[in-house]
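Quick one before lunch.
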Amino acid sequence: MVALNPVLAAVLRNTLGRRRGVTGCLFTFHRAARPEDWASLPDRDFYVDIGFLDRLLAYLARHGWSVVTIEEAIRRSAAGDPSKFVNFSIDDCYRDTFELVVPLFRKHGVPVTLFVTTGIPDGTHVMWQAGLEQTVRERDTVVLDGKIVDVASPARKRAVYNAKARAWEGREPLEYAAFCAANAVDTGAVYANHAMTWEMIEAVVDDPHVEIGSHTVHHPHVASLSEEAAFCELERSRLRLEERLDIEVHHFAFPYGRAGDCGPRDFALAGKAGYRSASTTRKGLLTAGADPLHLPRNTLNGRHQQMHHAELHLTGISGLAARVLNRV
Ligand SMILES: [Zn+2]
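Model of the zinc ion complex:
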């Protein structure tokens, strides 16, 4: 994210939008936390402060943005609807989606899209991030590579979490299993603390403020899979949601979602797997007549929780900057 003077962001707002035929802005995030928990979160970039989200929803209402479902967003894009709209989608579906996020959107009377990784409620997904984070957060020391490591202060917790998450990349389930064994982590308790269950999803499925979409079965980097395996991930998660919840699922979001994680082959597969839309995490705005099988989304994260950061997304400036800097 480039830093930009908030005044400049405001000046550029509508002019950029009008020139590029902009219709809407899709936001995404993964987890939410209460303000009082913020200081002790080791992986805080992965969260949005629920208090900030509350203020952002109020700001959007004050400035004439309507919050819509993905279904409505792609309808408006296809129709060239010039009204200002945003969508919020939350990926994976952790327990805080049920406890904090859905109630907040209900309070504001606006919809939120849940992109469910079906392996989470099915109990087959390895929740290594949550497990590593919870253990580092709760303890003063942890055992890493046979050594006792100090994680007593919030700064140490963040540093150790980030170093391990980076070091484990590509072999997380294996590394997490070794970490749990060395630290006597109760993986069942971690799962219960962090996973959204089918019962929680069933409790919100008929809520008019909730739209359910799919986010694969196992949360892979789809582009790295064979065509057959990729199709399977896309189709099986849709079928699982439809069968378990007795609904139709029309929308999909690619895990990770950047240029290296999903490409033209995968966008076509999403159509073949029965989806009307597929979302990425490439920054930018939803323009009139955009291809719904590779929608841009702007990620909200813990580092950038000020209204002018949201404005960079709403104006399309962050998407423009990402393309200029080739960070897609
Ligand atoms: Zn995800």
